[in-house]
Amino acid sequence: MKRIAVVADDIAMPGEKGLSRLHYLAEFLTDNGFDVEIVTADFQHWEKRYRTEEDKKRIREQTKCKVTFLHEGAYTKNIDPKRILSYRTLAKNTKAYLEKNEYDLVYALIPDNHLCAVAGKYAKSRGIPFIVDVEDLWPEAMRMVLDVPVLSDVLFSYFTVNAKKAYRLADGIVGSSDEYRDEPKKYGVNNPNSVTVYVGNDLKRFDAGVRAHADEIDKPENEFWVTYAGTLGTSYDIHTLVKAGKALADRGHKNVRIVLLGDGPLRQAFEQTAKETGASVTFAGYLPYEKMAAYLTKSDVTVNSLVAKASQSIVSKIGDYLAAAKPMINTGLNREFREKVEADGFGVNVVPEDVNALADAIELLLKDPEKRAVMSKNAREIAVTQFDRPVSYLQIVRLCEKLLK
């Protein structure tokens, strides 16, 4: 049985907030015949706290593969010098740990670029395959918060240098979109073993959540729900979404309600916008995945609400939006996803940060139930054929098998 190390700093484990994709993948590889070990941090990124010994014990009991927690420093903000220092600590500890062990393949996540480069150097020193999984782009995403000519280039050069190292060491690339899959080409790396695997979701789990929680959600028959799910943070244009709800009320559509599922650093600012405008908004907060699925399915329209500067491509929530079988309004400017929205017929694209344009799109769908029905059908079909993890993640299994030969 071939032994694989899955190396990443930010992995949401069972019972935790955050993105659990890497935990799912590790278990999926285990189910497909590999001996897998997750090597990650003792600090939980989304909750900004250390995992207790009780947490670690519970996680290990609820995970099919081995889990190793290594120490990293604490930080309180997503964009924070302490976060960079903490990742350096984790990278140092990971290097020391890997060198004491033997694996047949290393699978590492970007970000963090430094940790990924360390994992790649270990793999090359042992003559074993190394796969880089590109889930987000650093430092591009950080320019959302700090984009000062020359200064930002200097501050973020650390991430650029380590990304280049990781990509050049890689034997295979997995991207959560075509754009992310092809990111190494910007660094002069044209890897023939590159695949696109959307973050996606597990449709059986999503549908089970809907069945279990749909009756708990009270949706007035006359209300039209426009729903966003995810982080309430800098990249996501919730201000415009809230203001669009107010604009629609002013047009006479007082039955439109904006539903926000999730939490984040800008929640209070978004709540203030809702208060100032008087828009009809529900802040549901962070919900367990299964209940979130039920909320999305109860909704009439979903919104992939991104600001103009957002670097995101095909984000994690897309699989859940599609699974809910609802029309999607996309404000992201990523060309790949905008083309997909139109080609696959599950939604409409709107210029970001334009209140009237967003209100027009919502009004269009509000007035045309037949269009909504067609888009809903298309959304679910794409969820089944392209985003269902038990099917799509087989590409990663095949890539591992290929490189291990």
Describe the structure.
The protein has 405 residues and is α/β, with parallel strands linked by helices. The chain folds into two domains: 3-200 and 388-404, 3-Layer(aba) Sandwich (Rossmann fold), CATH 3.40.50; 203-387, Glycogen Phosphorylase B (Rossmann fold, 3-Layer(aba) Sandwich), CATH 3.40.50.2000. The chain is 45% helix and 16% strand. The protein has helices at 21-31, 53-61, 81-98, 113-126, 151-169, 178-181, 203-213, 238-250, 267-277, 289-298, 317-323, 335-344, 355-367, 369-387, 389-392, 394-404, and strands spanning 3-7, 35-41, 43-44, 49-50, 66-70, 105-110, 130-134, 172-175, 194-196, 224-229, 256-261, 281-285, 301-304, 328-330, 347-349. The strands form three sheets. The chain has a seven-stranded parallel sheet with strand order 5-2-1-6-7-8-9, sandwiched between helices. β6, α4 (113-126) and β7 form a beta-alpha-beta unit. The longest helix has 19 residues, at 151-169. The protein is globular, with a radius of gyration of 21 Å. The model has no long low-confidence stretch (mean pLDDT 93).
